[in-house]
Write a structure and sequence with these properties.
Layout lengths: L1 H4 L3 E2 L2 E2 L10 H13 L10 E7 L2 E7 L4 E3 L3 E3 L3 H6 L9 H9 L6 E8 L19 E3 L3 H12 L8 E5 L14 E8 L11 H18 L3 H4 E7 L1 H8 L35 E3 L13 H14 L1
Parallel strand pairs: 6-12
Antiparallel strand pairs: 1-2, 3-4, 4-5, 7-10, 7-11, 8-9, 9-10
The structure holds flavin-adenine dinucleotide.
Length: 307
Amino acid sequence: MLRHHYMGEIDGAFRAWVFQKGGTGAISGAIASAARAHGAEIRTDAAVERVIVRGGRATGVALEGGEEIAANVVVSGLDPRLTFTRLVEPQSLPADLVEGVRRYKFRGSSGKVNLALAGLPDFTCLPGHGPHLRGAISISPSIDYLERAYDDAKYGEFSRHPYMDIVIPSMIDPGMAPPGKHVMSIFVQYAPHNLNGGWTDEKREAFGDTVVQTLSRYAPNLESLILHRQVLTPADIERITGLTEGNIFQGELALQQLFFLRPVPQWAKYRTPIRGYWQCGAGTHPGGGIMGGSGRLAALEILKAAA
Ligand SMILES: Cc1cc2nc3c(=O)[nH]c(=O)nc-3n(C[C@H](O)[C@H](O)[C@H](O)COP(=O)(O)OP(=O)(O)OC[C@H]3O[C@@H](n4cnc5c(N)ncnc54)[C@H](O)[C@@H]3O)c2cc1C
């Protein structure tokens, strides 16, 4: 996972991450504009219920509500469990594929806390405002700290002292917040999807409190700055986005689920056993992250097959 986070480069800067002006949704907007400029029609709020398969070939999709759309090529950007066990009948697939998808591990383990702030946090290690607030801030004081944070999740609890990756996008893009105010995005590990007793509203708030209290030890003025707080657990991520078990990368980036094994051996080249039905999401190689890698490689395979 850590290696995955540090691969790639942006504009020649190796292992760099970047901020998107206008927030992450602006990337989707830019991709949509480019597609429309090439003649694509994009439908949103149009959930696909199932892929229509006739004679071993995908011939289109059926939307929730009953509308059917015919297509020669159907490409699923959903995670492997949904692609192979919800959109099509698993009984029509080879047993090795179904078994591989059953074994494929999701186990979402991260949460998100977004804060609207009345001003900037003051970190005791680097007091005052400065360039450090424009970059990535990591709360990971030692290897032991990280290991203890993971130990809690291993036994079904969220970390009492979590590991946090923090950015303040409004420091880079002032349009993200009103003048003088800021937004802080906190990516938190670990928060297991299968929390002991399950996630409830109370546990979500307790998780949010733990994050804020932990961070306040490093930036004591934080709590007094909070105007609004949004806490997302893996259960929320699953409910809102549909990502199975709230895994942000459509499945763990563990060694046995990478490269030619993603999502499962023998079915890792975007093709599926159903002719005309392809997979292209983060559950395929090279995995999650806003990089378009899986989609590009899938598109090249589809074009090759059509040639
Ligand atoms: C909380 C969180 C934080 C993240 N942070 C970062 C980050 O900082 N940097 C980074 O690079 N990556 C980050 N990621 C990962 C990144 O967002 C994903 O890896 C990336 O979006 C994967 O793209 P995708 O197109 O494969 O799948 P998705 O973005 O998951 O797209 C799948 C699409 O299919 C739609 N869909 C689902 N079911 C249906 C259906 N039945 N019918 C029709 N449509 C359907 C969904 O609404 C969604 O739009 C984060 C993810 C999460 C959840």
